[in-house]
Structures are given as structure tokens and as C-alpha cells.
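Look over both lines:
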Amino acid sequence: MLMHPLIAEFIGTAILILLGAGVVANVSLRKTYAENQSPLVLITSAWGFAVFVAVYITSKSSGAHLNPAVSIGLAVVGKFSWSLVPGYFISQTAGAMFGSWLCYLTYLDHYKATEDENTVRGTFCTAPAIRNFKNNFLTELIGTFMLVFGVLFIVGPNIEISGSEIQNFGLGSLDALPVGILVWVIGMALGGATGYAINPARDFGPRLMYQLLPRKNKKADWSYSWVPVLGPITGSVLAGMAFLALEAIA
């Protein structure tokens, strides 16, 4: 079934965040069945599988970017139209907000039972293990560079938008598994410092949703929020530039 690309990006990002944030909630919140169960293995695995599911569902409709950094990286190398980036960004962010809200509804009683507000916030957005803005920014840059650089070698051409075949690139159904594995290994290898947002919409949308929730003593930590936005964007641009440089000398 084909959907409008912006609807597909909304749905795909919502699925990604629902499943990804869901596993964080499952291992973090009080009185869940998975509380305190090997969080690193569960979280990184579930995020990888969440990417697989979301990409598989939406790839034919939008190319399954599900991440502004991917959209920007593709635009940098001329494989996606810059004119489509703002619409994708808005849909991805809105989808991330909706997915995090669905996760909140799923675990509503457990959110009520969890008093540590840092734990609650951690099910919505990322935070550094050691707070150092410069190094945190670099970590997000490197992680996103690896993501976008890998995606640029996977994407294929000819995504149909509004019934017209155009030379924009995206992920196909068969690409869902390698991209899921890519996110999985990034989480396992590089996720320990900042929680590997590697996706501006993934962090900003849920952080905004958390801010809107009717909870006392909210700690959205907006002073850190620029890191998982600008770090991934910078990493995606550098990945695109590196890809173009390799193409030029190939």
C-alpha cells in the first residue's frame, strides 16, 4: 500500500519511537516485567529492530528516511530534493512526538509509579553519561556520520512522489535489515556516552512531548537539547561531503 510520503514519514517515525522508547520505558520504569533486565542489550537490539519494522512499512511510500539527518545527508549528495527536506523534517518530528505519546499511554501506570524524574525523561529523550557539551556534540556527530555514511551506500533511486517518478533516493524494503543492523551496531559500539540520538527528530519531538505532559517537577533539560539536534545534522553533512569526495576520486 502506498501512502503520501509525509504521512509515511509520520507513521514510520511514530513506529520507530513507540518501539524504541518503549524498550527504554520497559527496562527503566518501576514495576514493569523487564525492570533492571540487561538494559544495554535490550535497548540497542530493540532500536535496531524498530528501525527494521519502520523502514519495512514505509519504504515504498517515502524512502523511509525517518530521520532529518538522513534527509539532509541525501540532499547534500544530490540524492534527495532540498525542497522536500522541510516537509520531511516536520513529519518526522510530529511522528516522534506521537510515538512517544503512545509509549507514555502504554506505560501510564508505570510512569505514575516512577518517582525519579530523570528516569522518566530518559524514556523520552537522551542525556549524556558525562555532561561535556563539546565531547557530547562530537559523539553525536560521529555516530550520525556512521549512520548516514552507511545509508548512502545502501539507498537506491526512483522514489515515486505524487505519482511521478523522480530521481530521489531512499530505502527499499530489502534495505530494512541492513539499516536496522547499522543502527544496532552504532548503539552497541557508540551509544554509551550520549544514548546515541543520531536523529534530531527522535530527541526533539519526544523531549517536547515530555515538556507538555502533566507531570510535576519536569526536567526537560533544554540546555542540552541542542546537542542531539546540531550534532546529528553536522554529522550528516560531513558524511555527505565524505561520500562526494570518495565519488570524485573513484
About this structure: The mean pLDDT is 91.
